[in-house]
Design brief:
This protein is mainly alpha-helical. It contains seven helices and no strands.
């Protein structure tokens, strides 16, 4: 990397170590990683005095070019049971446009079939009592499933917040 493209504060730190550094010179990424590690360590020591375990981990991860943050969602998903995954999928489908459009089409079809096509011998005549029963059952089942999914999302958010504050 060309030295002049490095962040000014880091470049000043490097110039303390290498006084004859020309901004047009190149620095290899391995050396740049070492300088970053030393720079972060120095800044943290100046700010806080001594380094905590987390500070040490951050410095070591800089040296290894690793990312410290882990994907909480992936860790959380690994622990889900079949029922929990199923309820998440149902809740995801139940809150989608695909569900709303298909549900509207089924309702319209039900009303057309019972109100027009089978006008004389409809299996669910006009006040559509059977349709009301089906809708009530759907709502009674869908509401707890969505609540279970929301509870898991809340638990995942709590875990993420706990991980961030550590």
């Amino acid at each position: 990397m060309i030295a002049e493209l490095i962040r000014p504060s880091l470049l000043e730190f490097i110039k303390k170590k290498i006084p004859d550094l020309d901004p047009k010179m190149f620095i290899c990424f391995e050396d740049l990683g070492e300088f970053r590690k030393d720079y972060v360590k120095e800044v943290l020591e100046e700010e806080i005095g001594e380094l905590s375990t987390l500070d040490q981990e951050v410095i070591e991860s800089l040296e290894r070019h690793e990312i410290l943050a882990s994907d909480i969602s992936k860790q959380f998903e690994r622990k889900l049971t079949f029922g929990e995954r199923l309820s998440d999928r149902i809740a995801e489908f139940g809150g989608s446009w695909k569900f709303l459009i298909s549900f509207g089409a089924v309702l319209l079809l039900w009303i057309v079939v019972n109100g027009v096509v089978f006008a004389i011998r409809a299996f669910d005549p006009y006040p559509f009592i059977l349709l009301n029963l089906v809708l009530s059952c759907l709502a009674a089942v869908q509401a707890p499933i969505i609540m279970m999914s929301q509870n898991r999302a809340e638990a995942r958010d709590r875990l993420r917040a706990k991980t961030i504050t550590k």
